[in-house]
Design goal:
Blueprint (H helix, E strand, L loop, with lengths): L23 H28 L7 H6 L17 H14 L1 H21 L2 H12 L5 E4 L15 E5 L2 E12 L6 E8 L3 E8 L5 E5 L11 E12 L11 H35 L1 E2 L2 E2 L4 H29 L6 H26 L10 H13 L4 H13 L6
Parallel strand pairs: 1-4
Antiparallel strand pairs: 2-3, 3-7, 4-5, 6-7, 8-9
Helix pairs in contact: 1-3, 3-4, 3-6, 3-7, 4-5, 4-6, 6-7, 6-8, 6-9, 7-8, 8-9, 8-10
Family: Belongs to the acyl-CoA dehydrogenase family.
Cofactor: FAD
Protein name: Acyl-CoA dehydrogenase
Length: 396
């Protein structure tokens, strides 16, 4: 190439030319999910958020598209690579964090433990229906008094003959009120933490919907209560013991978040960019003012770097090297921060209009405040990385 040659100018929403780095299948999945979100979700998301509604009729649609448990093999799952799953999460969260949360919980927190640690009978019983959207799952780990400290969970499972009897409660459980099956983690006296596959029609199981949320309103969130809930031995996930089980599931879900958050941030940026070209003040579009351009450039740069990070971590997860939990913490911590900053900055460009549900920005901003703390708070992910750097555990 001669020194006088000049590369084609990048797209405003793809400054680093990342879209060209995906293969044909990854690109097709990304484009299909984006079109679905633009056609089916975006026109309605503001109303669903305002009304506090999760549109359950989309669940079989998500199953038909192959998005539920898409990164798992067999049992009706699509068997895509991790990067494709991440790109789907990015496009879903560009619609709404509640939508991506549903898919993340279904695939990474409910289906993954059955697929990874379950018996063949458990897999055959649940995974095909969950992949098709005919059955909904949830993940019961967080408790009213134990969020970031699952090792001290209060939910207890005790043997009674050949059965287990569980008492306790879980809090802030996505999909809980609409779930057909719950993956419930409980402490035991002899075997440490065990996971149980619990049909939600089991006597002693109750799911109470949490109302009056100011965030993730397009998501069903619940409290799970177990009152002498009796389960047979074959309800136990047989191939895992201890906190390794739930923590490995959280790492799977966090991977989706580090992609998804960039989608929410991108939606805010694109909205602000379009608005800056049409909003006229002092006789010209505000996009022509230096301070507005500075805001847009900073958002574009930060989001591009976040998407590059997500792509890199996706490639690691798909490689023989694999993806370490600390690297997932790096991605989740960085990219949620980037997305929140984009939402807040984009809101300032729209001024008063930024708080209207006519635009998605305030909805994304509210949702991202929850994304910042669920599945590992900023503090937890900071200390995970701090322990890696120093060799010292600072959790206590």
């Amino acid at each position: 190439m001669s020194s006088s040659s000049r590369a084609t100018a990048p797209l405003p929403t793809d400054l680093l030319g990342l879209r060209a780095r995906f293969d044909e299948e990854e690109t097709a999945i990304r484009d299909a999910v984006r079109k679905y979100v633009e056609d089916r979700i975006t026109p309605n998301a503001g109303d669903w958020f305002e009304e506090g509604v999760f549109p359950e009729d989309i669940i079989p649609e998500l199953g038909e598209m192959g998005l539920l448990g898409m990164h798992l093999d067999g049992y009706g799952c699509a068997g895509t690579n991790a990067t494709s799953y991440g790109l789907a999460c990015l496009e879903l969260e560009a619609g709404d964090s509640g939508l991506r949360s549903f898919v993340s919980v279904q695939g990474s927190l409910a289906m993954f433990p059955i697929w990874k640690y379950g018996s063949e009978e458990q897999k055959e019983r649940w995974l095909p229906d969950m992949a098709a959207g005919k059955a909904v799952g949830c993940f019961g780990l967080t408790e009213p008094d134990h969020g970031s400290d699952p090792a001290n969970m209060s939910t207890r499972a005790k043997r009674d003959g050949s059965d287990w009897v569980i008492n306790g409660a879980k809090m802030w459980i996505t999909n809980g009120p609409i779930a057909d099956v719950a993956i419930v983690w409980a402490n035991t006296d002899e075997e440490g933490v065990l996971g149980f596959v619990v049909p939600t029609d089991t006597p002693g199981f109750t799911a109470n919907e949490i109302k009056h949320k100011a965030s993730l309103r397009m998501s069903k969130t619940g409290e799970l209560v177990f009152d002498n809930m009796r389960l047979p031995q074959d309800a136990v996930l047989p191939n895992v013991r201890g906190l390794k089980g739930p923590l490995s599931c959280l790492s799977e879900a966090r991977f989706g978040i580090l992609f998804g958050a960039i989608g929410a941030g991108r939606s805010c940026f694109e909205t602000a960019l379009d608005y800056s070209k049409s909003r006229v003040q002092f006789g010209q579009p505000i996009g022509g003012f230096q301070l507005t351009q500075q805001k847009l450039v900073q958002m574009a740069m930060d989001l591009a770097k976040g998407e590059l990070l997500a792509q890199h971590l996706g490639r690691l997860k798909d490689s023989d090297t694999g993806l370490a939990p600390e690297q997932v913490s790096f991605g989740k911590l960085n990219n949620v921060r980037v997305a929140i900053d984009a939402a807040r900055t984009a809101r300032t460009i729209l001024g008063g209009n930024g708080i209207s549900h006519e635009y998605p920005i305030m909805r994304h901003a509210a949702n991202l405040e929850s994304v910042l703390t669920y599945e590992g708070t900023e503090e937890v992910h900071t200390l995970i990385l701090g322990q890696l750097l120093t060799g010292q555990a600072a959790f206590k």
